[in-house]
Amino acid sequence: MSSKRILVVDNEPSIQEVAQICLETVAGWQVTLAGSGLEGLAAAEREQPDAILLDVMMPDMDGLDTFSKLQANPATRSIPVILLTAKVQTTDRRNYTELGIRSTIAKPFSPLELAQQIATTLGWKL
């Protein structure tokens, strides 16, 4: 198993916990948690994760604003971002792709499939 580092940015503690347990247990990845867009920006710059799993709907700074700020920062611009969202209509997915977001994973997600979905999107082996 490769020791990838994933940053999970979600304001729901239960989603953070499920994602962390699944990614650490199934894939053996190191997971850093952030509860807001602002925390996520700081963690991304500090930790330099291999990928970011980012919730779209969060208070204060939503996922798209957070993504925009990640892209504006040379230190975080190249980190691949996968959105975790309930908004997965075809038009939403198209808009996300045009922005440069690698993929979307629909909420509710399957905990046992989460690591594989991320790995497949990013071309990683589990």
Automatic annotation (TrEMBL):
Domain Response regulatory: 5-122
Record CDD domains: REC_RR468-like (cd17552)
Alphabetized UniProt keyword annotations: DNA-binding, Phosphoprotein
InterPro entries in the record: Bact_response_regulator, CheY-like_superfamily, Sig_transdc_resp-reg_receiver
Family annotation (SUPFAM superfamilies): CheY-like
GO process terms (BP): phosphorelay signal transduction system
Residue numbers of 4-aspartylphosphate PTMs: 55
SMART domains, alphabetized: REC (SM00448)
Flavoprotein found in the keyword field: no
Annotated GO MF terms: DNA binding
PANTHER family cross-referenced by the UniProt entry: CHEY SUBFAMILY, STRESS RESPONSE REGULATOR PROTEIN 1
Protein name: Response regulator with CheY-like receiver domain and winged-helix DNA-binding domain
Species assigned in the record: Chamaesiphon minutus (strain ATCC 27169 / PCC 6605)
Phylogenetic lineage: Bacteria, Bacillati, Cyanobacteriota, Cyanophyceae, Gomontiellales
